Each structure stands twice: as structure tokens, then as C-alpha cells.
Amino acid sequence: MIVRFEGEVYRWEARTDSDWYFVALPPDLSDDIRETQTYRRGFGGVRVDATIGGSTWRTSIFPQTRGFYVLPLKRAVRDAEGIAPDGVVTVDLVVLDA
């Protein structure tokens, strides 16, 4: 599965000392991924190759209690692509089988 979506970057606020940033996948796309992916990693993660601008990396997307997946944004990617903490990004996502 190969998809493109746009989303707002947000900081994980569960811990005030956190430097974790994410972008949420749209609910309909999250539903499609949940229906097609039977293999999940720890914490329900699904392996993906993500691309923003000129940066591509392998990671996992993780389900949230509100029913959608989130993509973690590494500091190296945020720095390389000039992603602001409250910015909007376009993400190309390849959902991997395993």
C-alpha cells in the first residue's frame, strides 16, 4: 500500500520533557491500514517507509486510542526538512507487509 497524506505536526505532551513529534494519519487512511495489515509489531505498530521532502526513513506507525495511527518524526528528519513543531507536512508512506 502506497499513500500520500498531509497532516499537522504536534508534540507528544504526555511528558513535558519530551522531544517526540508526530503527525497523525487521516482516520479513513488509518481504517484502511487497520483492515489490510494483519501483521503488527510491538504496541500494534505497522512497519512503513516514510518520505517527507528529500528524507526517507523506515519506522513504524502506531495506533492511538482515538482510532488513528501516528507517524513519529525523527529529529534528523525535522532538522533536514525544516519542519516546525506546529507545521504541516506532506508524507508519502509505503506500508510494508512485515
Question: What descriptive keywords fit this protein?
Answer:
single chain; 98 residues; alpha+beta; Elongation Factor Tu (Ef-tu), domain 3; 17% helix
- Calculate the terminal CA-CA distance, rounded to whole Å: 12 Å
**How would you sum up the major sheet?**
6 strands, antiparallel, barrel
Rg is 13 Å
* Total number of beta strands: 6
Q: Quick one: overall form?
A: globular
CATH architecture: Beta Barrel
In terms of per-residue confidence, which ranges show pLDDT below 50 for 5 or more consecutive residues? none
Task: Describe, in plain words, how this protein is organized in 3D.
The longest helix is centred in the first third of the chain and has 10 residues, at 27-36. The chain has a single domain, classed as Elongation Factor Tu (Ef-tu), domain 3. The chain has helices at 27-36, 75-81; strands at 2-11, 21-24, 46-52, 55-63, 69-73, 88-95. It is α+β, with helices and mostly antiparallel strands and 98 residues long.
Offer a quick outline of the entry:
Helix content is 17%, strand content 44%.
SSE topology sketch:
Blueprint: E1 2-11, E2 21-24, H1 27-36, E3 46-52, E4 55-63, E5 69-73, H2 75-81, E6 88-95
